[in-house]
């Protein structure tokens, strides 16, 4: 690995870390604790563990495409879109307490992650494959977001 490779990898890790700060800035807190949740809700400890792993996979995925092809505009436009949508979700759900808005965001995120994996595949099948656990977790998160919205919409707190 060259110095440039290492610096670019560090840049991807930093970008993933920046996106992860959304979960630090907008935490679940007492509001979330008081909501009805489906029985299949993962334990609270699962979220930081899973997301830490996923953010690392996202960073390595982007780096592998960069190493293989430089900066293919279409693929990295999709990568950027999914990162923005990822960041926005915590703000919408926990910050604004708007689970329906967050549901729309995460629905778009599912599509953006799938599109990114598809766009990465011609450059690096490994990079595309590294996004599949992320896609699976975001699909679970979509289902959880939907369930929380549905279970609590009668409380009059959701738009």
UniProtKB/TrEMBL annotation:
Protein name in UniProt: Tryptophan-rich sensory protein
UniProt cross-references to Gene3D superfamilies, sorted A to Z: TspO/MBR protein
Record-level GO BP terms: tetrapyrrole metabolic process
Subcellular localization: Membrane
TM region(s), chain numbering: 7-26, 46-66, 73-94, 100-121, 128-149
Organism per entry: Aureimonas phyllosphaerae
CDD domains listed in its UniProt record: TSPO_MBR
GO cellular component: membrane
Superkingdom: Bacteria
Similarity comment: family membership: Belongs to the TspO/BZRP family.
InterPro entries listed in its UniProt record: TspO/MBR-related_sf, TspO_MBR
Keyword Lipoprotein: no
Keyword set, alphabetical order: Membrane, Transmembrane, Transmembrane helix
